[in-house]
Amino acid sequence: MDSERFLALVKYFLEQLPSFLAFIGCIAFAITRWKHYPKIAMLVTIALTYLLLHQIIFSFVYFFVPSYFIRNAPSDTITTVIRNVYLVIGLISNSVLAIGIVIFVAAIFMRRTPAPVL
Questions:
Q1: Helix, strand, or coil (residue 17)
Q2: Cα–Cα distance between 118 and 104 in angstroms, integer?
Q3: Can you say whether the dihedral through the CA atoms of 12, 14, 15, 18 is positive or negative?
Q4: What is the pLDDT along the chain (118 residues), one digit of tens a residue?
Q5: For the whole model, what pTM was predicted?
Q6: Which residues contact 1 (CB under 8 A, 6 or more apart)?
Q7: DSSP per residue over 27-93, as a string?
Q8: Which residue, of 19, 30, 32, 42, is most buried by count of CB atoms within 10 Å of its CB?
């Protein structure tokens, strides 16, 4: 990888640094609450770690995969290839993201006592 492309990748990750720090901070907070709420803290930690890994992995996917397909595409179909590559990556990314959100929401509503009926 040439230095210009490497710098672009570093810039791409630096743009996401606030999100990375937020995930890490929330994971640390969930771990500190582990003794009080072990099951909930475990699910929250799993969900946040999953979402952090999702963000890192799909940052690489969005950075490297489209250029591979675009570089090898015939010039007369380049716009179709670009559209289809981003469509497929987006569908996969959002489907995988949904799993982390489901785990996170399950942790939020776990062990709740029902509201009293009036």
A1: helix
A2: 30
A3: positive
A4: 688 888 988 898 899 999 999 999 999 999 999 898 888 899 999 999 999 999 999 999 998 898 888 888 888 888 898 899 999 999 999 999 999 999 999 988 887 666 677 7
A5: 0.83
A6: 9
A7: HHHHHHTTTTSHHHHHHHHHHHHHHHHHHHHHHHHHHHHHHHHHHTS-GGGHHHHHHHHHHHHHHHH
A8: 30
